[in-house]
Design a protein that fits this description.
102 strands; 1471 residues; mainly beta; 5-stranded mixed sheet; 6-stranded antiparallel sheet; elongated
């Protein structure tokens, strides 16, 4: 019997047995029927690829029912094209335990159902069985002669095979006698044996279900022997678990070969129960026993990781429990029956079935099903197993490929296929590497040098007869993935040889197949047939063909030739080694070029004619990557799973399947939901977090690669599909059925939503109608077959002028509710009124204490003209009809209105009327009473601008149910276009995010929460509000770190350059990028960066500037999202000046390490107009010397050289032109020297003199006026006069042109202007201007009025006095003061006399006038010369003499003394 199956598992193919292959179905049927007997007979059918081999069923009891009429057995072995490739020679064994030779056709085996077998067994007899055995013996004897002739052919075939070997001594293994299959009873012994030839001697290994047999692991169970090339496997005391396929593998250095045999172990039914009748009386079910199977303690959805071990188990309860009765336990993955192997260990303890996955790989992912089969039926249980990728050995490397398989196996060529992994860990997969390993070794060899993108690759260069396994690795830019699970072993051999080898694998059948004809020697083979390009990619092209039609050709091999399209030049591809297989892969073809190909056969007789060339084939990927899947729709399933369905990729070729990924909304982290491609367009994603909201996406995969991802699905919250565990009921009936429009044969109805919707959304409504004739209602009819989602529906096919009643039913996920009460009776007649019909579907939203929002839909019946407005009426709920009053005096064109100024706590009802040009139409139905009360916990929509500048509307609801949803509307119309607004909902909060806010978004936004008591709110986004929000958004989106100071540069000690700025606020996480000319700088020897987060000072110090540092320096600040930057451009003269200053400062630092100038040589002018050259020095010591130089010549130390208090001075008292030159001071000691130079030449000397002139000018006195005998003089005094001083005299603000009458000059420190013989014309303002190279200094005086008169009068006086002084009598000179003369000598004195008129001359002696006589002669000649002569002086002439001259202007005298001595007196005195 079949148990209940979860609905999501019913979509899998193993829900029942109908999908099974004919082979499996037949086998199951035979197992079910044969188990009724004492020995559980097992019927099996052997199928080999390319062969149809007869299989012979063995029935193990001595009394079997007669075999029904069957087709004549054939002894010809044929391939798929029904061509004879050999003969089948059955081996007869005369025994009552075995009956060989039965050959049932497929049709006969299908007919052997359980019922047929039961009826046949009831009427069988021993006689009929004997006849059957005798018939088989005759058939075998008839063929004995043919067997003898076949032995000869086998011997000749072996000799031919040896000749084909390159080395007649060394040859690969060959089975002379292959093991044959056996069917034995339980607890019997069985032996498999074979004879193997080969050189060197092959090594033989026995396998059970592809697992090597180890005799030591099961002592006494297995016995292996090898003697004289005869090898045997003996199995002692067989039990039911020994039923398996056995393989013997022989391998040497020349190759490897395997042979197969099956063992079926049968059990006596006498062990079932002693109380039951003997088995031969029929099956158990005939005695009324029915088994009931229950699977409990089930395994659930499981998650594993590659490399782990996982066990799946269920407890099986079978009632009634019979001793020794064992059900058939089968495990499936998907629709594939699993067999015990090294990957799968199965165990049945009698009440618990366990499947152990020993080493998980992604190939193991899938739906696992346990099927328990009894005679009464079967029971199944399924659950999914997910296998995640193992951690990557290299971070970022992709996941391992999966499902590696070998196709198109030939002698030296195999196509390896695989499936791409689901994850690439963020980096696209660049391609795949294929590795091969020879069976029996552990050495892996990489088959391709460069990664291939295509998930299919031809491997060439294999050794014929050897077996290989393959694996694949994916690679991306991060590294190599883990290798895939290795493929099943496959032998490189001719497909025909493989078919012959597999022909011996049928259970309990011994046979020899000979397929080759007698070789025809010396015949050149013909053309290959049906050459075609079977596969073409940009990496390789695969050719396939059929051998020539001639039979029996000797050792045919092939040469492949290619030709570039458009040319006739054929080039042989495989020049060295001919191809043995009718398949060939060509590499190293130029992508994009077109080629044609042809093939030639060859053998020892020569090379045949080429085949017909292929059509031109362009090298490139012929298989396109599939397109992205279509719309993805997630549906709730359980608390941890979601059902995801999608639209298949369009026009996808060779589709492998789909990968599904899921992401928690807002996380941007995508995780694969499956690691093995699924072929369906529906998948259950397990392992999700309850309550989280997910989105999903899907991509398709084929051999060419993975498609683009589909569009993301709508978000879905993970919770149970049926309301998260809350029971639901069907909704209550709708009510308030009204007619919105009526025409001749249809009526539009409207109704109100049920008061209770059952806890789940209403999915639709169903309308029924019935005709009312004479007050008697008729039979109800369905108005709509498909549910309608709106609360209005047009019922058609009515009859005019008939009366009808209607009823409505609401439906939700729990079912369809009961119908409403029949409506009023409506007459179906066409409306002709001019005014509109009633509006409908009135809804009340946003109920507050002071306002209510009312929504409605326009009337269906428009009237004679279109509706152009609406009026809303309001009244208190308990007020009379006369209390209706209008809310709006002017009709509104909108279908919503916010009603304000309602009274808190009052209950209101509303209605709406529509109008057109004809007037106001019918009123709508009245709303339910609405109390104007703000419910506790009511929230309003809050506008928010987050740190990213994203503007969003946020609404929170505290009264949500598990099925509640947020419905956002603009202008009270639900938004379906997500291009303007993106809605995100999590828990009880919903957010509507503006994608690109603009004028298009202006409007009223509202949010309604379903399944609540009217929780809703609205927000009006006006133009002014939008502008304000955009400004805030910009500030948040691009926050600026405030700066106290912009980027600046300054020089530090040693000429270091410091770039710095100061930020106002930065957190500890703030960071700074230092950029120069768009290149980020880093800390090093050249750049020293520092960021003081306490003060916000950011600085970068450079040791020096080089020409390469010219450019733009930028500090880029980032603190979270806030950024700012400040730049400083240092180019051109600005940079050169800074570089020069930096270099100067650097030199200055080094200079100051020894004696140096603190202040370089300069000068100052003292108030006394002395020039002092001075400089200030530092870091000097006693040994420091200072030397002055002028024009390179050392100035000797004198009193002007001083060295006190670190100041050196050189004083120039009276500076003149000769003092110009270059002055230099040199400081020197053992630490170094420093030099200071002052250039006092040219402009430097001029500047110095200007400063001296400035001091002179400032020392000048005010101009004064004085008179002289020549005229009037204007003058000033200075403290010091220098000959280089330039002055300018002005008269009435004009420079004076000097002449003989007006002159200027300098006398000492006096500067004067002389006006000779002044007149009144000389009156006015006079000024002297000192030129000091700057503004100069001017002093003025007014020569006019009384000042002029006084000066002129004084001039006249002085002039007269001067004349008198000039003309008065004078003694000009010539007279000595004392004259000593010897007595007797003559004395003659002469003096000059001047005066006009000529003065009178009088001589006096001792103040007495003397006159001229002979002794004293007095003369006055020419009025100028007066003489005094004494001819001979005597002592009496001694005395005081005077000359007195006199005229009218004055008198003057001249005095002298004469002393006369006597010579004797003089001589006596000497003695």
């Amino acid at each position: 019997m079949s148990g209940s199956i979860p609905f999501y598992q019913k979509h899998h193919r193993h829900y029942d047995r109908g999908y099974r292959s004919k082979e499996t179905e037949s086998k199951l049927s035979q197992y079910q029927s044969s188990s009724r007997y004492a020995g559980s007979s097992t019927s099996s059918t052997s199928r080999s690829r390319g062969l149809k081999v007869s299989s012979h069923s063995g029935l193990e009891t001595s009394r079997l029912s007669p075999v029904p009429k069957r087709a004549k057995p054939t002894y010809l072995a044929v391939d798929r094209e029904n061509q004879i490739i050999g003969y089948v020679v059955p081996i007869f064994r005369g025994s009552q335990e075995f009956a060989s030779g039965f050959s049932d056709t497929e049709e006969a085996r299908v007919r052997e159902t359980a019922a047929y077998m039961a009826r046949r067994d009831l009427f069988t007899s021993g006689l009929e069985m004997e006849r059957s055995e005798q018939f088989s013996r005759k058939e075998a004897m008839r063929e004995s002669a043919e067997r003898i002739s076949l032995n000869k052919r086998i011997h000749e075939h072996e000799e031919h095979f040896k000749r084909m070997n390159e080395d007649s001594l060394m040859h690969p293994p060959e089975f002379v006698i292959k093991p044959r299959s056996h069917t034995v009873w339980e607890k019997q012994c069985v032996r498999l044996h074979c004879t193997v030839s080969g050189w060197p001697d092959p090594r033989v290994v026995w396998y059970k279900n592809n697992v090597a047999i180890d005799p030591l692991a099961n002592p006494g169970k297995y016995k292996l022997e090898s003697r004289y090339s005869v090898h045997s496997l003996e199995i002692n005391r067989c039990d039911f678990d020994d039923t398996a396929q056995y393989r013997v593998s022989a391998m040497n250095s020349k190759g490897e070969l395997s042979a197969f045999a099956s063992i079926v172990v049968k059990r006596f039914k006498g062990e079932i129960d002693e109380s039951l009748p003997a088995p031969r009386y029929g099956p158990v079910s005939e005695y009324g026993i029915t088994f009931q199977t229950h699977i409990v303690d089930k395994f659930g959805v499981s998650f594993g990781r590659e490399g782990e071990t996982m066990s799946l188990g269920c407890t099986v309860i079978i009632y009634p429990a019979l001793h020794h009765y064992q059900p058939e336990i089968q495990w499936y993955r998907g629709d594939v029956l699993l067999s015990p192997s090294k990957w799968y260990h199965m165990h049945w303890s009698g009440d618990r079935a366990t499947l152990t996955l020993t080493h998980l790989n992604k190939e193991d992912e899938g739906l696992y099903t346990l099927r328990v089969t009894t005679k009464s039926g079967y029971e199944t249980y399924s659950a999914y197993v997910f296998v995640r990728d193992a951690d990557a050995e290299i971070e970022g490397a992709p996941g391992a490929p999966l499902d590696v398989r070998c196709l198109d196996v030939n002698k030296d060529y195999i196509i390896v296929t695989w499936k791409q992994p689901a994850i690439d860990r963020g980096n696209s997969i660049l391609g795949y590497f294929v590795d091969r390993c020879e069976v029996g070794t552990t050495h892996w060899i990489q088959c391709n040098d460069t990664p291939v993108k295509f998930a299919r690759f031809p491997v060439t260069g294999l050794v014929e007869g050897r077996s290989y396994t393959f694996r694949v690795r994916a690679v991306n830019k991060s590294g190599m993935s883990r290798p895939s699970r290795v493929s099943e072993p496959v032998a490189a051999m001719d497909p025909a040889d493989r078919a012959r080898m597999r022909g011996t694998s049928a259970p309990w059948t011994g046979q020899i197949i000979v397929t080759e004809e007698e070789p025809a020697e010396g015949i050149v083979p013909g053309r290959p047939l049906e050459l075609q390009v079977t596969e073409a990619t940009k990496n390789y092209v695969v050719l396939s063909w059929k051998p020539p039609g001639d039979k029996g050709l000797e050792g045919v091999m092939y040469y492949v030739e290619k030709c570039v399209s458009g040319t006739d030049s054929w080039q042989r591809v495989n020049t060295e080694i001919p191809v043995k297989s009718p398949r060939f892969a060509l590499f190293d073809l130029a992508e994009g070029k077109s080629y044609s190909f042809r093939v030639r056969c060859c053998n020892s007789a020569g090379v045949g004619e080429p085949s017909d060339p292929t059509e031109a084939t362009t090298v490139g990927d012929k298989l396109d990557i599939p397109s992205a899947p279509g719309k993805v729709v997630p549906t709730r399933n359980t608390d941890t799973s979601v059902v995801v369905s999608w639209e298949a990729s369009r026009e996808a070729k060779e589709l492998v399947g789909y990968y599904i990924e899921g992401s928690v909304v807002g996380s941007n982290v995508w995780e694969p939901c499956n690691n093995k491609p699924v072929n369906a367009t529906r998948f259950i994603c397990h392992g999700l977090m309850t309550g989280e909201t997910y989105v999903f996406r899907v991509r398709a995969v084929n051999a060419a690669g993975l498609s683009q991802f589909s569009q993301e699905s709508e978000p879905v919250e993970v919770k149970a599909a049926i309301g998260g565990g809350i029971p639901h009921a069907s909704p209550t009936p709708p009510y308030g059925i009204t007619v919105l429009e009526c025409v001749r044969d249809s009526m539009v109805l409207a109704w109100k939503q049920p008061t209770f919707i059952g806890g789940a959304d209403i999915t639709g409504y169903f309308v029924d109608y019935r005709e009312v004739i004479d007050g008697v209602p008729g039979k109800w009819h369905e108005g709509n077959i498909k549910a309608v989602s709106e609360r209005a529906y047009r019922v058609c096919d009515l009859k005019e002028n008939r009366k009808y009643q209607f009823q409505v039913r609401a439906a939700n996920m729990a079912g369809v509710g009961i119908p409403s009460l029949p409506s009023d009776t409506f007459l179906c007649e066409e409306w002709t009124i001019a005014v509109p019909g009633p509006p409908h579907d009135l809804q009340v939203r946003e109920v507050r204490s002071d306002s209510v929002v009312l929504l409605w839909k326009p009337p269906v019946y428009q009237g004679r003209d279109p509706v152009n407005g609406f009026y809303v009426d309001i009244k208190e709920a308990d007020a009379p009809e006369e209390a209706w009053r209008g809310v709006n005096n002017k009709a509104t064109e909108k279908t919503y209105i916010k009603i304000k100024n309602v009274k808190e706590g009052e209950t209101y009802v509303f209605r709406v009327r529509a109008q057109n040009k004809a007037g106001v139409g019918k009123t709508s139905d009245v709303t339910e009473p609405v109390p104007a009360v703000t419910k506790p916990g009511t929230k309003e929509i809050v506008v928010d601008v987050d740190d990213d500048g994203v503007i969003s509307l946020n609404f929170e609801c505290c009264d949500m149910t598990p099925d509640s949803k947020f419905v956002w509307s603009k202008n009270y119309e639900e938004m379906t276009d997500s291009s303007r607004l993106t809605v995100e909902t999590k828990g009880n909060k919903s957010k509507a995010v503006f994608n690109t806010p603009g004028e298009e978004d202006i409007g009223i936004y509202s949010c309604l929460v379903t399944h609540t008591d009217g929780a809703s709110s609205s927000y009006t986004l006006s133009e002014e509000e939008l502008k304000r929000l955009l400004e805030i958004s910009h500030d948040h989106k691009f926050p600026i770190i405030p700066l106290k100071s912009e980027l600046a540069v300054e020089l530090m000690e040693k000429g270091k350059v410091r770039f710095w700025l100061q930020a106002d606020k930065m957190s500890a996480n703030g960071k700074v990028d230092y950029v120069f000319n768009d290149n980020v700088l880093s800390q090093g020897e050249k750049y020293k960066m520092n960021f003081d987060r306490n003060t916000g000072v950011i600085e970068m110090v450079m040791e020096s500037l080089t020409p390469a540092d010219e450019g733009t320096f930028t500090f880029q600040l980032q603190d979270g999202k806030a950024t700012n930057q400040s730049s400083l451009v240092l180019i051109g003269d600005v940079f050169k000046q800074l570089q020069k200053e930096s270099e100067f400062q650097r030199k200055e630092w080094f200079r100051k390490q020894g004696p140096h100038f603190i202040e370089y040589l300069g000068y100052e002018v003292t108030p006394e107009c002395c020039v002092v050259l001075k400089c200030k020095v530092g870091n000097v010591k006693k040994e420091t010397s200072a030397v002055w130089y002028k024009d390179g010549r050392e100035i000797k130390a004198d009193e002007h050289l001083g060295f006190t208090e670190g100041v050196l001075k050189l004083e120039i008292a009276q500076i003149s032109k000769k003092d110009s030159g270059v002055y230099e001071v040199v400081l020197k000691d053992d630490r170094g020297k420093d030099t200071s130079t002052l250039n006092l030449t040219d402009q430097g000397f001029k500047d110095l003199m200007n400063e001296v002139f400035s001091f002179i000018a400032n020392s000048s006195t005010p101009l004064k006026i004085t008179s002289t005998e020549q005229g009037i003089r204007i003058y000033t005094f200075v403290s010091y006069y220098n000959d280089l001083l330039q002055v300018t005299w002005h008269y009435k603000d004009s420079a004076i042109a000097f002449s003989d009458r007006i002159k200027s000059g300098v006398v000492g420190e006096q500067l004067w202007l002389q006006i000779s013989d002044p007149t009144e014309k000389d009156m006015g303002k006079y000024a002297i201007e000192f030129n000091d190279g700057k503004g100069g200094l001017r002093r003025t005086v007014e020569l006019s009025g009384q000042a002029f008169d006084d000066a002129f009068a004084e001039f006249q006086r002085l002039k007269a006095a001067a004349i008198a002084e000039r003309n008065r009598a004078r003694v000009a000179g010539g007279l000595p003061d004392v004259v000593t003369i010897q007595e007797g000598k003559a004395l003659n004195l002469t003096c000059n006399i001047s005066g006009d008129p000529v003065p009178e001359v009088t001589w006096l002696k001792n103040d007495r006038e003397i006159t001229s006589d002979e002794h004293c002669i007095l003369k006055f000649e020419s009025g100028k010369f007066a003489s005094f002569t004494i001819t001979g002086v005597n002592t009496s002439d001694s005395g005081k003499y005077s000359i007195l001259v006199k005229n009218k202007y004055g008198t003057e005298s001249g005095d002298f003394t004469v002393s006369v001595f006597i010579p004797e007196e003089a001589g006596g005195k000497k003695k």
